[in-house]
Every structure is written in structure tokens, then in C-alpha cells.
Amino acid sequence: MRYLTFGEIMLRLKAPGVERFFQSPVLEATFGGGEANVAVSLANYGCDVSYITVLPDNPIADACIAELRRFGVCTRLIKRGPGRMGIYFLEGGANQLPSKVVYDRAYSAIAMAKPGDINWDEAMDGIDWFHITGITPAISEGAMALSLESVKTAKSKGITVSCDLNFRKNLWKYGKSAPEVMTEIAKYVDVAIANEEDVQKSLGINIDVDVESGKLDTDKYRILSDEVLKAYPNMKMIAITLRESKSADINGWAACLNDREKFYISRRYEINDIIDRVGGGDAFAGGLIYGLTHYDDKQKALEFAVAASCLKHSIPGDFNRVTLKDVENLAKGDASGRVQR
Ligand SMILES: O=C(O)C(=O)C[C@H](O)[C@H](O)CO
């Protein structure tokens, strides 16, 4: 089984710990991006995964590619092109203080790319599973057109397409709205991944989901996922992550999966001391893709995804630095967090 993910990877500059920007004159430099994060998760589980993007030809981008390779992600398809490397600045937040992301990614190499710049036939040769997100089509007209081209090509080749809808309200500045584009992309998606806000803001499907209520209302998520599947007859399934919180402090973390035949709901984790929430959704997507391609049992796949994502909340950085065993142990029920000797 061979996987390919496509999107933008950025330099991530984070204020240390829970400090505000420039509280101390330091920013921690790592790399991250939704689709690269998924590729790293899959590589950590031992999968054969490639990541494709466009990066400038400079030493910072070289370091980024080397970092992906360190995890075992195949970077052979990454193109170098005009433009810069995108940056995102991050304040961690804590308790009621939300984490804050500032994007500085205009004119990045991938934002400057246009349809035809990536040879999808070559990139998708031998690929079984293709993953994108709603972030790439939000960054520029060209990246949107490339995203559409990618899912159409994948579909025509019989490759399974997953898409994390990932609505980012501070992107979508080039003249198209999220629903205008994402409702088109969704027609080519086999496995959709979302939270309730993504479904509402990217697909324009609104039902009365009370996210502020402080408890998981599974019937509402069943209805919401049914509505999406009704609107997209080609979609095989949708997974929705359920974050139960009134503040930046998560109380409960779970997910559901609707495959048209059955509605699955995962166990619920309490995560009260969040080390880094960025990449939690990508860890879920990576776990779900792994689970769906390695287990016959969709409940098991969902439990694996939620366990992977739960662990990510305790790991600094975008990447989910876990092993297959770490996730399997938690998914099997070892949530004690005790010292392992
Ligand atoms: O928000 C984005 O565009 C990013 O890719 C930054 C983070 O890596 C991403 O939000 C994690 O899902």
C-alpha cells in the first residue's frame, strides 16, 4: 500500500512554552503543515508514504526536506520553484488563553504554483491512497486549481482520496470562498475528515449542532454526517472529530465515523493538560488512514485514529512523534500514562 499527501509545509516559529510572542527574544524553529504532518504520522507507523509540495531552492527548504526524510517520508517528488517558504508564527496558549496562529505565507512557492506545474501522472504512479486538505485550495487561485487537478486525477486512476476539510478562516483571501471550492473538491472525495465547523463553513451544511453545550450529542453528529453523505453520493464515509470544550482547555476528545451502513462512535478521552494542540487533527487523519488500510474493523480504525490524536496533544511540534506501539497500547486501553520500564 502506497500513500501520497499534497500540500504546503511551512517554517513554524513558536514562542517558547506558553509565552506570548517576544516575551523572551526567542522563537523555536521547526516545520509543519497539515498534509506533511499526515505523511509523518504514516511514516511513523511504517508506511510507504510520499509527500509532494513546491518549495524554494534555498537552505531553509533543504533543511525542511531533510527533516521529513529523517522520519522516512519520501521527498523525491518535491518540486523546487519560484517564491518563498511560508512561515507560521504560533503562541501556544493555555487554559482560557487561546493559542494564536499568524500566517506569513503569501507568495510561497506553492501559492505561486499553477495547474500543470506538477506531473500528477508521475506523482500518482503506483499510489493507492491520496490525501489533501482544505488548506491548500485556500491559499491561492493556482493552488486551488492544482488541488482540483490532483483529486480529479486521483479519482480517474481509482486511487482512494481522503480530504480533511480543515477550514482556515484567515486564508481564502484570493476571491473564492471555501464553500465555492470545497463543494467541488468534495465530489471527488472517498473519505472526508472534518470537525463540525469544517462541515458548516466549508460545505455550507448546517444543522443545529450545539458545540457549546459541553457534552457530546451523538445524535446530532449522526444527522450532520448523514447530511454530508446525502449531499455527496460518491463519498464512502465521513469521520467527524468531536471536541467538547468551552475554552481552550479540552475536556473531552472523541470522534465518529459514518460509512452509510453504520455510525461508529469512539471512546472519549479526557485531555486536561494540553502541551500542543496544533497537528491534533492531522494526527487523527493519519491514524484513520492507517486504521482503514490495516484493519477490517472500522471501529478499530476509528479507535486507532482517536488514540493517535489524543497522544499528539502531549507532544510539542506539529509532528506526531509516536510509534505504532504507542498508539496501539492506548487504543487497547492503556491510558494510565504510567512509567513504562
Ligand atoms: O494551518 C495551516 O495551514 C497549517 O498547515 C499549520 C498547521 O501545520 C496546521 O494547522 C496543522 O493542522
Q: CATH architecture, please?
A: 3-Layer(aba) Sandwich
Give me the strand/helix succession: EEEHEEHEEEHHEHHEHEHHEEEHHH
Widest beta sheet: strand line-up: 4-1-9-10-11-12-13-14
Residues in helix, %: 25-40%
InterPro entries: Carb_kinase_PfkB-like (IPR052700), PfkB_dom (IPR011611), Ribokinase-like (IPR029056)
Organism: Thermoclostridium caenicola
Protein name: 2-dehydro-3-deoxygluconokinase
Domain Carbohydrate kinase PfkB: 23-312
Give descriptors for this structure.
341 residues; alpha/beta; UDP-N-acetylmuramoyl-L-alanine:D-glutamate ligase; four-stranded mixed β-sheet; 14 strands; 20% strand; binds 2-keto-3-deoxygluconate; Carb_kinase_PfkB-like; kinase activity
Structural commentary:
With 341 residues, this protein is α/β, with parallel strands linked by helices. The protein has one domain: Ribokinase (UDP-N-acetylmuramoyl-L-alanine:D-glutamate ligase, 3-Layer(aba) Sandwich), CATH 3.40.1190.20. It contains twelve helices and 14 strands. The strands form three sheets. An eight-stranded mixed sheet has the order 4-1-9-10-11-12-13-14, with helices on both faces. It has a four-stranded mixed sheet with strand order 3-2-7-8. Strands 5-6 form a two-stranded parallel sheet. The two termini are 34 Å apart. Bound molecules: 2-keto-3-deoxygluconate (KDG). 2-keto-3-deoxygluconate is lined by residues 32-34, 37, 88, 135, 168, 278-279, 281-282, 318. It comes from Thermoclostridium caenicola. Residues 23-312 form the Carbohydrate kinase PfkB domain. Keywords: Kinase, Transferase.
